[in-house]
């Protein structure tokens, strides 16, 4: 067992991650080849046989996370949507204030629990 | 260059580093493909090498060296390969912190770094999905991200429970809250009824989460081929696809090995210095992969909400019970 101090240990482990990563990447770069020209059919995006425009191919990251919340916590999603999309500024302020208060409460509980354990 | 630096380099590049991870991952792929095929009354890999054992090597090198690297108009060209290389590198670095490595890097609270490396490997699939947008890719990545948000905290809790128990019961075992220390003492957790219950519950939970992490049935929702082609991997081909398969196999291999070390006591009943311990570790590893393959072969794909329910029922609840037992042990 090689017992190190956390800083040196972390540095060695990160280097142990980067060196093989670099070798794999260099292998990839040396072996890859492209046999098509720009604008080739191969580079177009298709969905169910229909060409998809680049603008339609992506969705924003915010929407991705909303899908995650919508699917896993449906009631919470519905509640947040109704509160946040009421169009009333005060509703939004109340929501944001409660959300940040909740985060601060969780943080305070965590800090005190850790200090109590220590 | 000092002898110690040279030793570390050999460990990083040969064993348990790059060469070992590539060889062991591709062997694991052959093993589960062969088992999966036999369970479905098929032959499985049979042509390259004895019993088809070299088929995954042939597939990997064919994709890496002979196939064209096609990138769509909106996809990133080289960044996905770099992300994938970092994911594989993270798993190699993780192995250096386990008893699989003769070096065995350890320090206080290194479990945080180990969890970070495991997270990196899993999150690479999300990054790869984002880097080549397509309606199927986005849908698959969204599904993967949804499952990821549910199973990752459970996975973290599952690994923290034995770490906390080892730190509590083997206070003299240094360094504390370390992955390596946990692996070295995990076999002894089975000798106390209370810690044995907590370890058994977390092992079952971790096995189910691992099934979801490597996208085996019934959790292959992100790459459900009849619905979203190949999910996050739809637009990838050639060398990038080779690296994606290698990362997937490496994740399966390294995390199964971690399960053997952290929950099944590694070489127990033999010690780490005993030569007989090596075949015991290999047998336990093959059994873990066999169980994952049996679950894969005997279940059908669930819908996303059903899968999340399944994870909550059979993975989150055992973990919470084990966490309560661990908290009670730690505070008394």
Count, helices of chain B: 12
Largest sheet of chain B: none
Helix content of chain B: 55-70%
The low-pLDDT segments of chain A are: none
Tell me the strand order in the biggest sheet of chain A: 2-3
Radius of gyration of chain B (CA) equals 20 Å
Alpha plus pi helix count of chain A = 5
Global shape of chain B: globular
Instruction: Give the number of DSSP strands of chain A.
Output: 3
Measured distance between first and last alpha carbons of chain B:
50 Å
Biggest interface, chains and residues, is: A-B, 50 and 63 residues
Total number of domains of chain A = 3
Shape of chain A: flat
Structural class of chain B: mainly alpha
Sheet of most strands of chain A: 2 strands, antiparallel
What is the residue-mean pLDDT of chain B, rounded to a whole number? 91
Order of helices and strands of chain A: EHEEHHHH
Tell me about this structure:
The complex is a heterodimer of chains A (118) and B (332). With 118 residues, chain A is mainly alpha-helical. A two-stranded antiparallel ribbon of chain A has the order 2-3. Helices cover 69% and strands 5% of the residues of chain A. Chain A has helices at 6-31, 54-57, 61-72, 74-84, 89-117; strands spanning 2-3, 46-47, 50-51. Chain A has five helices and three strands, in the order E-H-E-E-H-H-H-H. Chain B is an all-alpha fold. Chain B is 68% helix and 1% strand. Chain B has helices at residues 3-13, 18-39, 55-65, 79-95, 110-131, 135-169, 179-185, 193-213, 225-228, 238-263, 277-298, 304-331; one strand spanning 105-106. In chain B, helix 2 (18-39) crosses helix 11 (277-298), helix 5 (110-131) runs antiparallel to helix 10 (238-263) and helix 8 (193-213) runs antiparallel to helix 12 (304-331). The radius of gyration of chain B is 20 Å and the shape is globular. The N and C termini of chain B lie far apart (50 Å). The interface between A and B is large, with 50 and 63 residues. Strand 1 of chain A pairs parallel with strand 1 (105-106) of chain B, so a sheet runs across the interface.
């Amino acid at each position: 067992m090689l017992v190190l101090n956390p800083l040196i240990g972390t540095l060695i482990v990160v280097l142990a991650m980067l060196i093989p990563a670099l070798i794999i990447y260099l292998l990839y770069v040396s072996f890859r080849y492209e046999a098509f020209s720009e604008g080739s059919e191969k580079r177009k995006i298709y969905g169910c046989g229909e060409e998809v425009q680049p603008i339609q191919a992506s969705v924003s990251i915010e929407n991705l996370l909303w899908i995650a919340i919508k699917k896993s916590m449906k009631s919470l999603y519905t509640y947040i949507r109704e509160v946040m999309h009421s169009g009333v500024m005060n509703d939004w302020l109340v929501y944001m204030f409660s959300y940040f208060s909740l985060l601060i409460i969780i943080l305070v509980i965590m800090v005190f629990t850790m200090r109590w354990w220590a | 260059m000092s002898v110690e630096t040279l030793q570390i380099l050999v460990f990083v590049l040969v064993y348990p580093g790059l060469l070992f991870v590539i060889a062991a991952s591709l062997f694991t792929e052959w093993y589960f493909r062969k088992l999966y095929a036999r369970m479905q009354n098929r032959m499985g890999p049979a042509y390259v090498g004895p019993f088809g054992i070299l088929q995954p090597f042939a597939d990997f090198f064919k994709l890496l060296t002979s196939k064209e690297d096609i990138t769509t108009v909106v996809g990133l060209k080289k960044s996905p390969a770099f992300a994938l290389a970092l994911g594989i590198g993270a798993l190699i670095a993780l192995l250096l912190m386990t008893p699989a490595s003769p070096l065995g890097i350890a320090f206080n609270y290194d479990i945080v770094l180990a969890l970070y490396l495991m997270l990196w490997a899993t999150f690479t699939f999300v990054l790869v999905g984002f880097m080549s947008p397509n309606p199927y890719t986005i849908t698959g990545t969204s599904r993967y991200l949804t499952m990821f948000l549910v199973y990752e905290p459970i996975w973290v809790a599952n690994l923290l429970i034995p770490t906390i128990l080892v730190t509590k019961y083997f206070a003299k075992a240094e360094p504390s809250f370390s992955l390596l220390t946990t692996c070295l003492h995990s076999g002894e957790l089975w000798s106390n009824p209370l810690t044995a219950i907590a370890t058994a519950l977390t092992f079952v939970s971790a096995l189910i989460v691992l099934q979801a992490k490597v996208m085996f049935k019934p959790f292959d929702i992100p790459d459900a081929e009849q619905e979203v082609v190949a999910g996050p991997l739809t637009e990838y081909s050639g060398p990038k696809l080779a690296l994606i398969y290698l990362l997937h196999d490496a994740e399966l291999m390294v995390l199964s090995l971690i399960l053997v070390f952290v929950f099944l006591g590694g070489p127990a009943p033999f010690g780490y210095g005993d030569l007989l311990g090596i075949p015991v570790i290999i047998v336990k590893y093959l059994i873990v992969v066999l169980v994952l393959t049996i679950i894969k072969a005997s279940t059908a794909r669930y819908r996303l909400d059903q899968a999340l329910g399944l994870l909550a029922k059979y993975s989150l609840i055992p973990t919470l019970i084990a966490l309560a037992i661990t908290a009670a042990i730690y505070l008394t």
